[in-house]
Design goal:
This protein is α+β, with helices and mostly antiparallel strands and about 260 residues long.
Length: about 260
């Protein structure tokens, strides 16, 4: 049986860390594994970015798969490492907020193996544990259970209204420079966005759109693939054009 495993990490490709972790999966699954990178490019130590990437990826993953998520600036400390059942997918990760925005049905705490390196628990603990859970679905039931409500969770960004405007946090800036917002069409309640103002006071007009193309001038506001609205620039980087970054709050105004 071929096991599907999806890997999310901040290891990048310069060093061998990602390769070593995948090698542990291949070893423990006896080569019967298909490994797909969700991303190796999460910014180093950026748990919030990793949690966002995990949130938007989960609906696309096949039931029964494994997910190895390692963005772990607290590696080797007292923070827990866990296995979690997430809508039929088994996730192995540190309990540091990576599971903030995914549904967790059940979770179990993983012990660190005796010979595990405290500086590389992704390779020495999480990967072997995920492999074992995929080979034997009942094994995790022997582990100490974790109440999902006690998992570390970060608050999700929310739009805030005031003075006829809407303050909207930027959830993520992707590699194309699209600025994904913590906002949906439903949040706008039928209002038509007119412009945004960045934290430095510069204003930019907005044009609601359904796609990135064909090429057109100005900023676009459209629903992205994860269901959130995003600010885009046809043929360019909206982040560069507006100076927006993840965590910024934009002030959105509307037509009267």
């Amino acid at each position: 049986m071929i096991h599907n495993v999806f890997v999310l990490s901040d290891f990048g490709t310069r060093d061998t860390y990602s390769g070593q972790m995948k090698a542990a999966l291949i070893r423990d699954l006896c080569g019967e594994v298909c490994i797909v990178d969700l991303s190796e490019g999460v910014p180093p130590g950026d748990i919030r970015a990793g949690a966002f990437d995990l949130m938007v990826s989960m609906p696309a993953l096949p039931p029964g798969c494994g997910v190895l998520a390692v963005v772990d600036p607290g590696v080797g400390t007292s923070r827990r490492i866990v296995l979690a059942d997430c809508s039929g997918r088994t996730v192995a990760c540190p309990d540091n907020g990576l599971l903030s925005w995914v549904d967790v049905d059940a979770a179990w705490e993983l012990p660190a193996p005796e010979k595990a390196r405290s500086t590389f628990q992704g390779r020495d603990c999480l990967a072997p544990a995920l492999a074992r859970a995929l080979l034997d679905g009942s094994w995790k039931e022997t582990l100490p259970p974790v109440d999902p409500s006690t998992l570390v969770r970060m608050p999700r960004g929310r739009p805030t209204a005031g003075g006829g405007f809407l303050g909207v946090p930027v959830a993520h800036v992707d590699g194309f420079g699209n600025c994904i917002l913590w906002l949906t069409w439903d949040d706008l309640d039928g209002r038509r966005p007119l412009s945004i103002r960045n934290p430095r006071g510069s204003s930019f007009n907005l044009s609601p759109a359904e796609t990135y193309g064909p090429a057109r001038p100005g900023l676009l506001l459209l629903e992205g693939s994860c269901g959130l609205l995003e600010i885009a620039l046809s043929g360019g980087s909206a982040a560069f054009f507006t100076g927006l970054a993840e965590g910024d709050t934009v002030i959105m105004s509307f037509t009267k």
